[in-house]
Automatic annotation (TrEMBL):
Gene3D superfamilies assigned: HAD superfamily/HAD-like (3.40.50.1000)
InterPro entries: HAD-like_sf, HAD-SF_hydro_IG_5-nucl, HAD_sf, Pur_nucleotidase
GO molecular function: 5'-nucleotidase activity; metal ion binding
Species of the source: Pseudomyxococcus hansupus
Keyword vocabulary terms for this entry: Coiled coil, Hydrolase, Magnesium, Metal-binding
Keyword DNA-binding among record annotations: no
UniProt protein name: HAD superfamily (Subfamily IG) hydrolase, 5'-Nucleotidase
Amino acid sequence: MSDEELTRLLTSPRERREVVQRSREIFVNRNLRMSSVDLLGFDMDYTLAIYHMRRLEQLSFDMTLAKLVSEYGYPPVVGGLLYDHHFVMRGLAVDRVNGNILKMDRFGHVGRAYHGLRPLKREVWRELYRNKRVRLRNPQFAWNDTLFSLPETCLYAGIIELMESLGHPVDYGKLYDDIREAIDTVHRDNSLKREVRKDLARYVFLDPELGPALHKLRSGGKKLFLLTNSAWDYTDALMKYLLDGQLAEYPSWRNYFDVVVTAAGKPGFFTDARPFLELDASTEEGRVVGEATSLERGKVYSGGNLARFEELTGYRGENILYVGDHIYGDILKSKKSSLWRTCMVVQEIEDEITYTATRQEDIGTLSQVEVLRERLDDEVNHHKTLLNILERRLEREQLTADERLGVDELRKQTKLELDRMRRALKEANEVADTLEVDVEEGFNPYWGLLFKEGNENSRFGYQVEQYACLYTSRVSNFLHHSPMQYYRSPRDKMAHEQAGALSARLSPMGGEGPAKGAGNE
């Protein structure tokens, strides 16, 4: 710190660096040295392939709704339901017993609840959830944490709203199971993906920076692999659309990857013992050639499992970084089953950061009012205590006339100050509550901000923080960083450290220990 030449080197401007929009940054929960990562893996859907969300959600909604009417016996009036993309958000839970949709904070406490398309009555909300923590392992609840699951949430609420408005009873559990099965069938029988393939440009965002980002990682000495649940025919069509022709060095999308695994069956890939099967990539259907004894560049495989993958590639644990969009299928299971490092793609980050930037002035005002509210609350309590002391003196102590006059004057002054601060606190509470609702519901009128629930992280935000070493909005954001980047997280601070304790200054950066959620159930 006293080396003048070193100080000059560190403070002298170097070559002009590209300014990266905050919405396109890579955010860090746990320190990660890219120099230690030899093998990078990618999911495909909503990871390498970023879908036009509203268009794909509408297609999935319409196809599932048609199947419910034609194959599950739902009345034709249900077929007229409209999709409301505002009513859906990742990280919502469905109460299959009571027919409610819930948003929770990181502690599992319900902050918002809807029955059908209407806010749950407060007395019902308090009875069901106020003094209970929602545990998602309980089969009563189903957690919708993927972008593919958004239409089912809207369907569930819409059908309940419609049927009950018509006076028909609804079996909430059966309705959820029917929707879940119908939407799974639409994905499993490839009917949805067949429609997508007919017009890829309509449903898939073509990112011109994706190829250069992958090339930069390869140029930095990284090997890349693709690990997707999609079948070979759809994978090939989609990856051709995304990458073929982007860079002259890669005549085919397959040239970017050292290993290609389709139909991986995640999350089972991380826990089961399915063998790798080699496919005939020259055919669209990907005919099985036989069980694979090696994973070779230029070939295509299906199935497989984590242990065998590490054995055949020669890479394991923290030398592998896997990038995916699914908390359970890509991130949580890989974290619980291995020491793979993880990066989660959350494309909604761009919308939330862009939105909050437009509300910067309101958010600043809210922050100031919150500080004022805290100070007023503290002063109100102090004055109440002082007033009680003065009143007890007047009631219980033997005071001279002058002393009684002095205490009484002080009591009157204290009461005036208390009344004034109570009025100010009431006004501050109203301003803060109004501003908070306005800011949150400006992003989503039903559920507020994705990563927050009130003052706490939402359940979704908490799980991103717990299980993803890195998170970002799209894979191409790696283009703006060195393949040898050292991603440093902020140091975790407890409440007493936020107040300025010296222990908070030991290091401003976090560590490289086990991920926060590793091993947690």
